[in-house]
Structure formats: structure tokens, C-alpha cells
């Protein structure tokens, strides 16, 4: 992953070409991009997003746990952004920006739980069955976004109404005791 894929595939010369050649070049790039992709590996396309719930709570880490609250003053620096790697058009891996921590939905003793796991988001595979717990389905409703676990259908990422409580998962997203609607904005 250290070597950009494009470099591994071919060397691109500098060219001052007319538009028709440009189109050929683009087609060529697209074709080589597709041909070079190792099977099962998604294109490396990670993007950072800011996330906050509809009550304006942002995410931060407390004892390695993801928490949502109202950060003020110098504490606003503690806000964590989310790294996103697309899996399919509406599904994605979610990680803590710049950290080796990814969000996962796990079933522990019949209890569904949100877990932060020490894994680099770029090492996750969309074809590996055991990586499904890191996959979330994004659904947009007007300006807000909800995240359902692909491994635990019906379970949605949520915050509590109360500040400074852990981010978790709920299977009753319609009930007003949890917040499942987020603003999710690309940085
Ligand atoms: C994750 O892996 C990528 C590719 O190897 C690397 O560039 C990046 O620094 C790693 N991230 C962390 C937080 O270790």
C-alpha cells in the first residue's frame, strides 16, 4: 500500500495533448486502474468526515471508548473525525481518523455491541467475511445520515440524549431515547 497504485501500474509521461487524446488517456487510465486492482482489494479511497449528531454532540475518545458530548474551549481539539473507506455505493468501513481504530458491531453473549478494534482501516477487506462487522450501511434522510450495521441488521449507530455517554448501537432507532441521526460532512 505504500506505493501508489498508479505508479505500480505504469508510468505516465507528461503530455500536452488535444482533447481527443485526453479522452483516450482517461479511458486508458480507467482500464489500467481496473486491470491492476488486486482481486478483493478495493481501490484505496479513504476520506475524512466530520460527524455530529442532530443535537450537536461531537465524538471524542475517553479511555479508548468513543463518547459523544459538547466539547468546549480547548477541548474542541479532542473532537475525532471519521475515516471512511467505501465498500459498496452505500456501505463503508468507519475508522477513527488517523488512528488504528475501527468501528465494529459484535455479538457478545447475545448482546450486540459497538466495539472499537485496533485495526488499520486500510487493511480491511470487503470480501473477507470476518470484516463484515466493520461494514456500515449509510442511509440519508434529508440532511441527516444514519448508519446501520451490515453484520447486525436493524442495529443503528447512536448516541444518548445525555452528554458524555458512549456511542453505541440501538435496534429501536425510532424511539426518541436515542439519537441515530447525524450530520456527516466530508472534510
Ligand atoms: C494505515 O496504513 C496505511 C497504509 O499502509 C498507512 O499509510 C497509515 O499510516 C496507517 N495508519 C495508521 C493510523 O497506522
Question: What keywords describe this structure?
Answer:
6-stranded antiparallel β-sheet, 12% helix, Trefoil (Acidic Fibroblast Growth Factor, subunit A), 3-stranded antiparallel β-sheet, receptor, binds 2-acetamido-2-deoxy-beta-D-glucopyranose, 14 strands, 40% strand, mainly beta, 2 helices, disordered N terminus, 187 residues, secreted, 2 domains
Can you describe what's shown?
By secondary structure, the protein is mainly beta. The chain has two domains: 5-36, no CATH class; 47-186, Trefoil (Acidic Fibroblast Growth Factor, subunit A). The chain is built from two helices and 14 strands. A six-stranded antiparallel beta sheet has the order 9-8-5-4-1-14, with no helix packed on it. It has a three-stranded antiparallel beta sheet with strand order 2-3-11, with no helix packed on it. A three-stranded antiparallel beta sheet has the order 12-10-13, with no helix packed on it. Strand 2 and strand 3 (65-69) form a beta hairpin. The two termini are 23 Å apart. Bound molecules: 2-acetamido-2-deoxy-beta-D-glucopyranose.
Please specify the SSE layout and strand pairing:
Elements: H1 5-9, H2 19-36, E1 47-53, E2 58-62, E3 65-69, E4 82-88, E5 91-96, E6 102-108, E7 111-117, E8 135-141, E9 144-149, E10 156-160, E11 165-166, E12 168-170, E13 178-179, E14 182-186
Antiparallel strand pairs: 1-4, 1-14, 2-3, 3-11, 4-5, 5-8, 6-7, 8-9, 10-12, 10-13
Bound molecules: 2-acetamido-2-deoxy-beta-D-glucopyranose.
2-acetamido-2-deoxy-beta-D-glucopyranose is lined by residues 1-2, 98-100, 120, 122.
GO molecular function: cytokine activity; interleukin-1 receptor antagonist activity; interleukin-1 receptor binding
Protein name: Interleukin-1
Signal peptide: 1-36
